[in-house]
């Protein structure tokens, strides 16, 4: 069991519905410029009105095609980008616009695990110093206590504590991701954004890392936002699943419901692409093949974003944006067709 | 690392031998004559006599071998003699300049301090200005500061020192009358006033040279910083809750300095080689000026020795740059 | 009463001025001299050019030197030996110098005749490679008669026996200091070559080759009140423009040598009112040399450009004369040198006693030149170029790479083209052109061209040796046109035996006429040396015959 630094002991406020993180109508538009004098001419709507609730101690999976804004959403939540609209409420506190020291203190409670374990580790720092840096910065531990903490962290992610003096390039991809996880755990955060933490790894190692994450969640009662395009991993790990398309969330539901009975045509299409391990079933499986490309986020379609590729689109979809509606079974969807 | 360094040094021996031969042959093939400044009315017999005294008429390979012997045996031995008060080289012929009939190394030793002071200081000043400019330009890419910095760097790279030097003289010496145009080599710094005088006479050459260093190094640093600023580990550092100062100065800068340090190390030989044009303009009696006067006077032993020393310095600093790279970047191993 | 008072005041001022000019030794502080060409040593006998010789003249002195009028005056000698005072033997075969008594080297030791004899031995040692050897060439022996008397014996009667130990090129060096520097050891004597012990007004305290020389007043200088300056700083490096700026514009330096700049640049700089440019007309003349022998590459190398084969075109004096008549020397002088040059028709333009002052060549005469070429049988061809017997009138004109000379080349080409001569121009780097390597085909002495242009001059004020260089059988380095005329040679021999200055002047003028009428060498422009002199520096007297710094002991600071 990892000892928790006393200063970081969080007061276990019980919020009303046990939601740790609530984001509402979150959006991030990157302005684009053109011409000799760089006039602003609109923007890329990377995140465009996203609503999500992440419950304490649970894992929310965020899935979608590449470029749909999942990673950006994760980064905006951690305030690595400044949102252009909406609110982020973490543990009852609005962190949408906090800055300076307040933000830095908040960072101790929210961490991120990155997709590329090689690039996210500073190549000129030893593993020990990478892990130690946030401890120094937040002035938590000193001297031997710090050393012990580093060893503990390495141990808890299944790495030999002797590795502390080595450089990142001396490790394999899986090991590096473990270092990244240890690094994220250093300040004992409550909430971790896992940004495709396994997609750069070998399949054999993917399961190890996912199991490690799961294990850590149980031991440390962590809350995850698990960003991935791997639907089977999401099914394995997550409690709730949100599906994103072109900067918007299409559907949000508990895992079992969404896998059994997807409501949104996009979710249906995505799930139909997941291979089934049984060859007979696999052969019989009906796939919904979406036509065309994802439209540009700089110039999204009117009405429903998905309508250009939706197999069941009708007139209303082009005119009216589907509302974010709550349906039975604590699930949410944004589709005119969904009942 | 040590093995690698030794191996590299061994490889450089044949390289340098070849370079010395090339330098020697080029100088011998080049037209010119050390006696061409004597009055034309001087009788040819007298000229022939003077040529013989200089040893120009010896066979080429004899001249080359003699030079090799002087450079690699007599001069180091002489250095040993001077250091330890021994007398191995008494009566041996050192490399003698044709112009001054003085030992080449004595003259180089006399010139080196000025070059190290002026060109070296310019390098340091240039770096000290370049680093903040490069950092801020990259951190605030496309900001007004970056645009101005880019413009000034381009200007610094594009304007040659024979122009900027003369312009500086016109402004600061002729019109404003603030600074001297001629570097006084014999100034002895022993008081505040002489120190200030030294600063005044160094100001213009140092600034003219520093502008060029600043321009190129700040550009290198800027692009290297930009490469690193978008790396994930920078995001990681931010996510860890590091302050922006730590993120930029520790994480980004240290990684960005790897290629820049190499560039800086490769530029170091020029501190010893001096700045031919700038030294000439401000009459700083450095190595650069020595080289150009020796070339004008067809002082072959001097030019040859200087050129070869430059070659050695370049080879050595290339090695140093490579070793530095290994020290700075843990991903690189020399085994 | 009033008048008396003003007279008195005037007298006081005059006295003050005089005392300031003749102040005590070292009273005027530092004088700063800029010699941008940067001397590389202080031994004129081993020097590669004038710049070293001039710097050395602050320290080393000859027995006699030339003053600003080109007149010999004694320096270390008690008086100038002449036939009248018995110093020169009646048969002109020996000269006896007497040293001033009580002379001291800067280290305090006495100057004796042994030093003079040693100097001769040093320079005449073939392994030393002495630059002043020419002056010693006719010498049979140099001997010390007593401590203060030296007798030089010549092999032949010598009309002007002042070639050795006279002028900046041939000063006396200390026997004691250079004793170990004889023969092949001469170049290794760095200390002696950088810090010679001399008798002149200054002593070297620090010598940095090609850079800076610091000197201080010689404590043992023979005149107790001189020099007025306690220190001299000679700085080298840079270029003529920067040097002119430092004296004329910013006033950082007191004196700058060799400011060969465009006249308008200098006059613009003089507006700063910090200093003035001073012109000195010496013996330097820009010449065209005609090759009287055949430079054709088809000849065997050892016969190319030798008297064996006369030049197919230029051996005809009418052609040479026509080429000379086509020139407008005044225009050339104006374009190239402005106030720093004068058109001339004399190969010895100065001093006045030797200058013929001929003006016959100054008038450009294109029609006359054409007539002359017609007479010589060169007929105008259809393309405007003359020809004879199927051969074209085509010449190559070579000079050094130098903006003024290359401009001259182009102008001369145009004039010669006007009279029907085709000209091919070539320019060669000065260090190659004036090189001493006999195997190099591009040198002025090999002269593998039809005409060449460069400046010649003689040192000192006596043109004897200079005139002799155009006699038959002289080497190609001195007699570049390969000129040979028995009348001329006879006159030169007579000159060699004549000691009387008036008679020498007449002979040189005759020689001038003969040589000029041969059109083998064509004087173009008489060129001046240019120096920059600060307004605060007094006592300078420009001297074209000896070192520019010949009277540095008399320099003072204007108060």
Describe this structure in words.
The complex is a heterotrimer of chains A (339), B (335) and C (559). Chain A is of the alpha/beta class and 339 residues long. Chain A has 11 helices and 12 strands. In chain A, the strands form 2 sheets. Chain A has an 8-stranded mixed sheet, with helices on both faces. Chain A has a 4-stranded antiparallel sheet with strand order 2-1-4-5. In chain A, helix 3 runs parallel beside helix 5, helix 4 (143-156) packs across helix 5 and helix 5 (173-185) packs parallel to helix 6 (203-220). The relative contact order of chain A is 0.14. The model of chain A is unreliable at 1-16 (pLDDT under 50). Chain B has helices at residues 2-29, 44-54, 60-84, 104-139, 144-158, 161-175, 192-229, 232-239, 244-267, 269-273, 276-282, 287-296, 300-328. By secondary structure, chain C is of the alpha+beta class. Helices cover 27% and strands 20% of the residues of chain C. Chain C has helices at 2-21, 50-56, 113-124, 133-136, 175-178, 190-194, 240-249, 263-270, 317-325, 329-337, 366-375, 403-418, 430-433, 464-468, 486-497, 501-518, and strands at residues 30-34, 64-66, 72-74, 94-98, 139-146, 149-154, 202-208, 212-217, 231-235, 255-256, 275-290, 341-343, 379-380, 386-388, 391-392, 394-400, 422-428, 451-456, 521-534, 537-538, 556-557. In chain C, strands 1, 7, 8, 9, 10, 11, 12, 16, 17, 18 and 19 form an 11-stranded mixed sheet that branches. A 3-stranded antiparallel sheet of chain C has the order 4-6-5, covered by helices on one side. Classes of the chains: A alpha/beta (339), B mainly alpha (335), C alpha+beta (559). At the B-C interface, helix 2, helix 4, helix 6, helix 11 and helix 12 of B face helix 6, helix 7, helix 13 and strand 18 of C.
The quaternary organization reads as heterotrimer
Per the principal axes of the C-alpha atoms, what is the gross shape of chain C? globular
Determine the fraction of residues in helical runs of chain A and give it as a percent range. Answer: 25-40%
Question: Using CB atoms under 8 Å apart, which protein chain pair has the greatest interface?
Answer: B-C, 63 and 74 residues
């Amino acid at each position: 069991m990892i000892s928790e630094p006393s200063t970081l002991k969080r007061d276990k406020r019980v919020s009303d519905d046990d939601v740790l993180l609530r984001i509402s109508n979150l959006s991030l538009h990157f302005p684009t410029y053109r011409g000799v004098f760089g006039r602003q001419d609109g923007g890329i709507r990377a995140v465009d009105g996203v609503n999500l609730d992440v419950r304490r101690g649970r894992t929310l999976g965020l899935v979608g095609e590449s470029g749909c804004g999942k990673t950006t959403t994760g980064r905006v939540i951690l305030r690595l980008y400044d949102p252009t609209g909406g609110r982020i409420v973490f543990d009852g506190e609005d962190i949408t616009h906090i800055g300076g020291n307040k933000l830095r203190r908040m960072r101790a409670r929210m961490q991120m695990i990155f997709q590329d374990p090689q690039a996210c580790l500073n190549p000129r720092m030893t593993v020990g110093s990478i892990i130690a840096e946030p401890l120094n910065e937040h002035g938590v531990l000193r001297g031997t206590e710090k050393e012990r903490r580093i060893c503990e962290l390495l141990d808890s992610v299944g790495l030999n504590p002797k590795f502390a003096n080595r450089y990142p390039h001396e490790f394999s991809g899986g090991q590096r991701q473990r270092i990244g996880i240890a690094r994220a755990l250093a300040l004992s955060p409550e909430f971790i954004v896992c940004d495709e933490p396994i997609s750069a790894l070998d399949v054999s190692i993917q399961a190890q890392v996912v199991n490690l994450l799961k294990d850590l969640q149980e031991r440390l009662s962590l809350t995850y936002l698990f960003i991935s395009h791997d639907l089977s991993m999401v099914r394995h790990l997550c409690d709730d699943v949100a599906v994103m398309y072109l900067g918007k969330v299409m559907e949000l539901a508990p895992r079992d419901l969404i896998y059994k009975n997807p409501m949104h045509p996009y979710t249906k299409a995505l799930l139909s692409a997941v291979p089934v391990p049984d060859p007979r079933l696999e052969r019989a499986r009906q796939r919904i093949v979406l036509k065309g490309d994802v439209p540009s986020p700089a110039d999204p379609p009117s009405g429903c974003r998905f309508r250009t590729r939706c197999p069941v689109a009708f007139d209303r979809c082009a005119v009216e944006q589907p509302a974010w509606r709550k349906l039975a079974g604590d699930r949410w969807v944004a589709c005119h067709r969904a009942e | 690392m040590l093995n690698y360094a030794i191996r590299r040094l061994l490889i450089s021996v044949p390289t340098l031998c070849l370079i010395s031969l090339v330098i020697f042959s080029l100088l011998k093939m080049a037209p010119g004559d050390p006696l061409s400044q004597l009055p034309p009315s001087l009788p040819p017999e007298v000229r022939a006599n003077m040529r013989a005294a200089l040893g120009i008429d010896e066979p080429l390979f004899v001249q080359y071998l003699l030079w090799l012997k002087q450079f690699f045996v007599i001069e180091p031995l002489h250095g040993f003699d001077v250091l330890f008060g021994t007398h191995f080289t008494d009566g041996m012929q050192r490399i003698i300049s044709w112009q001054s009939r003085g030992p080449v190394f004595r003259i180089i030793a006399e010139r080196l301090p000025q070059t190290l002071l002026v060109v070296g200081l310019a390098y340091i000043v240039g770096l000290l200005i370049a680093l903040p400019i490069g950092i801020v330009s990259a951190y605030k890419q496309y900001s007004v500061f970056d645009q101005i910095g880019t413009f000034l760097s381009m200007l610094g790279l594009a304007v040659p020192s024979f122009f900027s030097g003369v312009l500086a003289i016109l402004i600061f010496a002729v019109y404003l009358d603030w600074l001297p145009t001629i570097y006084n080599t014999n100034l002895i710094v022993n008081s505040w006033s002489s120190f200030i005088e030294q600063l005044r006479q160094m100001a213009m050459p140092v600034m003219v040279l520093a502008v060029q260093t600043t321009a190129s190094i700040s550009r290198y640093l800027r692009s290297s910083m930009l490469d690193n600023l978008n790396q994930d580990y920078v995001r990681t550092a931010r996510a860890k809750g590091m302050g922006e100062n730590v993120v930029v100065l520790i994480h980004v800068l240290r990684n960005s300095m790897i290629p820049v340090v190499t560039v800086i190390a490769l530029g170091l030989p020029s501190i010893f080689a001096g700045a031919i044009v700038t030294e000439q303009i401000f009459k700083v009696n450095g190595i650069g000026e020595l080289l150009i006067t020796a070339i004008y006077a067809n002082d072959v032993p001097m030019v040859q020795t200087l050129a070869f020393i430059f070659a050695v310095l370049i080879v050595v600093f290339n090695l140093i740059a490579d070793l530095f790279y290994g020290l700075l970047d843990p991903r690189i191993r020399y085994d | 009463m009033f008048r008396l008072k003003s007279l008195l005041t005037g007298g006081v001022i005059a006295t003050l001025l005089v005392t300031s000019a003749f102040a005590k030794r070292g009273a005027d502080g530092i004088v700063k001299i800029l010699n941008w060409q940067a001397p590389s040593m202080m031994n004129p006998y081993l020097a590669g050019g004038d710049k070293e010789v001039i710097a050395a003249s602050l320290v080393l002195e000859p027995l006699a030197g030339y003053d600003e009028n080109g007149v010999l005056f004694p320096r270390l000698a008690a008086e100038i030996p002449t036939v009248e005072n018995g110093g020169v033997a009646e048969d002109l075969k020996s000269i006896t110098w007497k040293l001033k008594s009580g002379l001291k080297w800067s280290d305090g030791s006495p100057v004796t005749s042994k030093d003079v004899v040693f100097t001769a031995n040093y320079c005449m040692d073939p392994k030393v490679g002495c630059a002043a050897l020419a002056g010693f060439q006719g010498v049979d022996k140099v001997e010390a008669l007593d401590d203060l008397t030296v007798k030089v014996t010549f092999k032949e009667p010598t009309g002007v026996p002042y070639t050795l130990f006279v002028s900046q090129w041939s000063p006396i060096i200390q026997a004691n200091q250079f004793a170990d520097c004889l023969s092949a050891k001469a170049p290794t004597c760095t200390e002696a070559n950088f810090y010679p012990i001399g008798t002149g007004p200054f002593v070297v305290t620090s010598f940095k080759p090609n850079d800076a020389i610091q000197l201080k007043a010689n404590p043992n200088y023979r005149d107790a009140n001189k020099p007025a300056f306690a220190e001299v700083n000679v700085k080298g490096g840079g270029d003529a423009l920067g040097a002119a700026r430092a004296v004329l514009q910013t006033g950082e330096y007191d004196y700058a040598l060799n400011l060969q700049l465009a006249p308008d640049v200098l006059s613009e700089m003089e507006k700063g009112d910090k200093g003035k440019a001073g012109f000195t007309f010496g013996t330097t003349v820009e010449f065209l040399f005609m090759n009287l022998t055949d430079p054709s590459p088809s000849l065997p190398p050892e016969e190319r450009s030798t008297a064996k084969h006369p030049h197919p075109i230029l051996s005809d004096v009418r052609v040479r004369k026509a080429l000379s008549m086509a020139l407008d020397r005044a225009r050339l002088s104006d374009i190239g040198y402005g106030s720093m040059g004068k058109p001339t028709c004399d190969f010895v333009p100065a001093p006045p006693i030797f200058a013929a002052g001929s003006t016959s060549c100054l008038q450009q005469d294109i029609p006359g030149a054409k007539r002359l070429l017609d007479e010589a049988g060169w007929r105008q061809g259809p393309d405007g170029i003359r020809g004879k017997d199927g051969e074209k009138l085509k010449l190559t004109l070579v000079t050094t790479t130098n903006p003024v000379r290359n401009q001259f080349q182009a102008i001369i080409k145009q004039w010669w083209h006007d009279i029907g001569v085709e000209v091919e121009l070539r320019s060669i780097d000065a260090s190659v052109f004036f090189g001493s390597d006999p195997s190099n085909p591009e040198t002025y002495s090999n002269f593998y061209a039809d005409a060449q242009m460069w400046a010649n001059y003689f040192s000192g004020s006596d043109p004897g040796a200079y005139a002799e260089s155009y006699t038959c059988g002289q080497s190609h380095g001195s007699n570049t046109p390969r000129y040979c005329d028995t009348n001329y040679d006879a006159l030169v021999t007579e000159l060699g035996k004549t000691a009387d200055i008036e008679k020498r002047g007449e002979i040189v003028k005759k020689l001038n006429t003969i040589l000029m009428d041969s059109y083998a060498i064509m004087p173009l422009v008489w060129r001046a040396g240019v120096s920059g002199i600060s307004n605060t520096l007094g006592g300078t007297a420009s001297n074209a015959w000896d070192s520019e710094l010949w009277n540095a002991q008399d320099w003072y600071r204007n108060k």
